[in-house]
Amino acid sequence: MKKELSQQESETLFNILKSRFEKNMHRHEGIDWDQVQKRLEINPEKSWSIYQMELTGGEPDVVGFEEDGGYVFCDFAAETPKGRRSVCYDHEALESRKTHKPKNSAMGMAEEMGIELMTEEQYLKLQLYGKLDTKTSSWLATPSEIRQLGGAIFGDWRFGRVFIYHNGADSYYGVRGFRGIIRV
Q: Matching Pfam families, A to Z (predicted)?
């Protein structure tokens, strides 16, 4: 699959990202949009991935700066992205379901999109920017010792705080999806 945007798609994406960036300066103080756009322009495959985040309802925005000069984008949609819901955790969980299989898994979709699932630590930091997942929940990158036991973790915001829970990795719900993160 071609993982490159057309000129029009790039322009559309950059306009959306720039507008979101300027409206939410508290997420990326000290970061200059022009430098972010330059980094995106020289990494077309990463721009494609961020475009996929946007298309699936993630509302990606810059959340940080890496020592190597890169930028970190993650999903800031109020609820887990609509285009990434009703998925179990990973391919193994998907294959283990005998009936009522979801169409995909969170890990499978993330890989196809070229992004990663947020870790528990990243999710907790994300929640400092506002109450997210108040009606939904998001699968999180699960430590191998939990996954080996058949489980996976997810998070949400309820009762004035962030909760991190566990569930069988093969479970899926209409309100559970995943949030992504990508370094550019």
A: DUF4256
